[in-house]
Amino acid sequence: MTRTRDPRITNNIRWVKLAIDATGVGRAFSDFLAEKQIEHAAVTITAGAATNRKGRYHNVAKNVLLGDLANGLETKKVIVAHDLPLRDRFMQELETFEVKTTAAGNTVLEVRATEHHADLAVAAAIALYHSNVGAGFTGEGRLAGYWG
C-alpha cells in the first residue's frame, strides 16, 4: 500500500518538529524514536533554573517551562482554542499550579491537585519551549520516517 501526502497540508507546513518529555521512561522512548530515525527533541525536566542543550537532548528547568507557558498565556502569545478537545481539563490543570518558596529561598512551581500531574500543561509547555528554541511549528502534523 502506497501512502500519499495531502498537498493541502504538506504545502502549508514546511517542517514539523517533535518534542517529547524525556524525563524518566521518556528517555527510552527517545531512544526508540532515534533508532527509527525520527528527528525529535528530548526534553528532560529538571530542578533549578538552568537550561542547556546537547544534540537532541534538552535539560530544562520546570520553572522555566511552566513560567514561559504562564507568561505566554498572560501576554496572549499562547491562546487556547475554545473548541480544543480536553480544553476544560487543560484549563483546570493550569489553575492547579502554585508558586512556593523553598527553605533555600528558591522559587518553585508545584501542582496542588492530587487527581492528575498536569500532563496537558507540561506537554503544552514543552511544545512552547521547543517552538521558541527550535524555530519550529507548534501544532498538528504527520511525522516523516517510521510511520511514513
Short description:
It contains five helices and six strands; from the N terminus they run αβαβββααββα.
Account of the protein in words:
The chain has 148 residues and is α/β, with parallel strands linked by helices. The chain has a single domain (16-133), classed as Nucleotidyltransferase, domain 5 (2-Layer Sandwich). It is 34% helix and 19% strand. The protein contains five helices and six strands, in the order H-E-H-E-E-E-H-H-E-E-H. The strands form two sheets. Strands 1-2-4-3 form a four-stranded mixed sheet. Helix 3 (62-74) crosses helix 5 (119-133).
Q: Which word captures the global form?
A: globular
CATH fold-level assignment: Nucleotidyltransferase, domain 5
The total count of strands amounts to 6
How much beta, percentage-wise? Answer: 15-25%
| Helical content (DSSP H or I, runs of 4+) | 25-40%
* Overall number of domains: 1
Fold topology:
Elements: H1 7-10, E1 19-21, H2 26-35, E2 41-46, E3 51-54, E4 57-61, H3 62-74, H4 87-95, E5 97-101, E6 107-111, H5 119-133
Parallel strand pairs: 1-2, 2-4
Antiparallel strand pairs: 3-4, 5-6
Pick out its properties.
148 residues, alpha/beta, Nucleotidyltransferase, domain 5, 4-stranded mixed beta sheet, two-stranded antiparallel sheet, globular
